[in-house]
């Protein structure tokens, strides 16, 4: 049973203390207790550090594989421009692009975190939910532990697969069952991007966020799931449309 108590003024009194490692591991082992704890005392330093160094560390440790991953898209862009380049020049372009991508990663991750949190916060407030913006930042930030687990597993798997892409999405299933279906044009890119969004770790992350939103907002768990996963599906559709228009799905 939780040691949290709600006072008559509606404030949360924290009697269920958790240490740092308890909170981090608790996101995976006991998300309900951890999210409740974070609502009592929101913390955002760890999420900031995790997003700055998480994915960047994976790419830095397996930099040659990261270069191999981005090379096809960069070569296609160069060909589309009609600019002739030598193999040596292409290697330099890919290396520069990889370094630039790693530098941009922390800023992108932090921006996406704040944007996602702001959307969830706004949606909750529309439905008269409670909670401060810092509480929601803490919830979504600590849910990023799920992605850190994914990065660790990807790092380990990369030594066996020679790839830094560990696909646990519906797209991987589609490639196994129907590899030649809907692979080209808008439809192919749209479907690939949409299926890629339905990833095991991504969905797990949103489940944990939903639990935290229920505690912070004082709304029912059902309403919390509806709000969070409506935003998740909307973002997946937007990503799929963008991929379809830009034909980016072929590089997913």
Structure characterization notes:
The protein is mainly alpha-helical and 252 residues long. It has one domain. The protein is built from eleven helices and two strands. The chain has helices at residues 20-29, 31-40, 45-61, 63-81, 87-126, 133-142, 145-161, 170-177, 185-197, 200-217, 221-246; strands at residues 5-6, 12-13. It has a two-stranded antiparallel ribbon. Helix 4 packs across helix 5 (87-126). The termini are far apart. 31% of the residues are buried.
Topology:
Blueprint: E1 5-6, E2 12-13, H1 20-29, H2 31-40, H3 45-61, H4 63-81, H5 87-126, H6 133-142, H7 145-161, H8 170-177, H9 185-197, H10 200-217, H11 221-246
Antiparallel strand pairs: 1-2
Stretches with pLDDT under 50, minimum 5 residues: 1-15
- What is the overall shape? globular
Give the biggest beta sheet: 2 strands, antiparallel
Strand order of the largest sheet: 1-2
Number of domains: 1
Taking the alpha carbons of the first and last residues, their distance comes to 44 Å
Q: Helix segment count? A: 11
Radius of gyration: 21 Å
| Strand-pairing-aware structural class | mainly alpha
Strand content: under 5%
Element order: H for helix, E for strand: EEHHHHHHHHHHH
């Amino acid at each position: 049973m939780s040691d949290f108590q709600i006072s008559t003024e509606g404030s949360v009194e924290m009697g269920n203390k958790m240490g740092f490692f308890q909170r981090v591991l608790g996101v995976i082992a006991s998300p309900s207790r951890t999210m409740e704890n974070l609502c009592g005392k929101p913390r955002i330093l760890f999420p900031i550090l995790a997003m700055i160094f998480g994915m960047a560390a994976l790419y830095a440790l397996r930099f040659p594989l990261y270069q191999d991953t981005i090379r096809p898209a960069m070569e296609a862009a160069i060909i589309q421009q009609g600019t002739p380049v030598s193999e040596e020049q292409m290697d330099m372009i890919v290396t520069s692009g990889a370094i630039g991508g790693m530098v941009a990663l922390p800023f992108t991750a932090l921006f996406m975190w704040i944007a996602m949190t702001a959307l969830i916060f706004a949606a909750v407030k529309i439905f008269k939910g409670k909670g401060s913006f810092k509480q929601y930042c803490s919830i979504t930030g600590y849910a990023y532990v799920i992605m850190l687990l994914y990065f660790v597993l990807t790092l380990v798997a990369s030594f066996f697969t020679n790839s830094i892409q560990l696909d646990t999405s519906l797209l991987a299933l589609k490639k196994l069952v129907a590899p030649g279906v809907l692979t080209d044009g808008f439809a192919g890119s749209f479907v690939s991007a949409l299926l890629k969004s339905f990833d095991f770790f991504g969905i797990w992350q949103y489940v944990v966020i939903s639990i935290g939103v229920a505690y912070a907002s004082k709304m029912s768990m059902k309403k919390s799931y509806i709000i969070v996963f409506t935003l998740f599906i909307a973002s997946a559709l937007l990503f799929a449309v963008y991929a379809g228009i830009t034909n980016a799905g072929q590089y997913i």
